[in-house]
Amino acid sequence: MKTLIFIILLLPFKALAFNLTADEMYRNLLIMENKAPIENILDKSHIKKDTDGKSKLTKEEQAPILNESVDESQLKKEYDDLKNEKAIDAVLNWQKIVDAVQKNQATAYEISEIKKKVDKNDPDATELLAWMYTVGSGVKQNFPKAYDLYIKAETLGIKGAKENALLVLKSMNRKEVQKIPNF
């Protein structure tokens, strides 16, 4: 017991080594580490100075900026290629989402992506989410939501969506039918 009391009384003095608290020593260490000259961190050898000490670009560095002969058709082609790549990526991403739903392996990410597309009135996403609510794939089975989404899909031009809505309606009990808005 005496040893424990001695250690407790001695701790504050151990922390005051060099007349500094542990916090002050830590702060000093951080200050020392961060005082490295900035010139050592940045290599400024590529920057040319004008006679008045201001930075200036070399002629090679100025050439792309001053070049007025920009090939607009090449820029348009590059822009179109980039748009096509993004479109292809979007299609591939959508296909991965559909595959995950079909395998009943939809994660929160896939479900949120589907819901985003539904909010943007994407007909395929609307029909897919309706099907998910019908069978309970990735979401809790909810016939009223499924019905509502099938009706929305039908208004967005999905063939067969109205028939699916009627099949879902036939599967509902009276309480579920009462949950359908505007029914």
Give a structural overview.
This protein is mainly alpha-helical and 183 residues long. It has 2 domains: 1-39, no CATH class; 86-178. The chain has 10 helices and 2 strands, in the order αααββααααααα. The protein has helices at residues 2-15, 22-34, 38-41, 59-66, 72-102, 108-119, 123-135, 143-155, 161-171, 174-178, and strands at residues 48-49, 55-56. A two-stranded antiparallel ribbon has the order 1-2. Strand 1 (48-49) and strand 2 form a beta hairpin. The radius of gyration is 34 Å and the shape is flat.
Index terms:
two-stranded antiparallel ribbon; 68% helix; 183 residues; flat; mainly alpha
The secondary structure category is mainly alpha
Series of H and E elements: HHHEEHHHHHHH
Strand order in the sheet with the most strands: 1-2
Helical content class: 55-70%
Number of helices: 10
Poorly predicted segments: 4-9, 38-43
- Roughly what fraction of the amino acids lie in strands? under 5%
Largest sheet: 2 strands, antiparallel
Number of strands: 2
Terminus-to-terminus distance: 79 Å
**Shape designation:** flat
Average of per-residue pLDDT values:
76
Q: How is the topology of this model organized?
A:
Blueprint: H1 2-15, H2 22-34, H3 38-41, E1 48-49, E2 55-56, H4 59-66, H5 72-102, H6 108-119, H7 123-135, H8 143-155, H9 161-171, H10 174-178
Antiparallel strand pairs: 1-2
Helix pairs in contact: 6-7, 7-8, 8-9
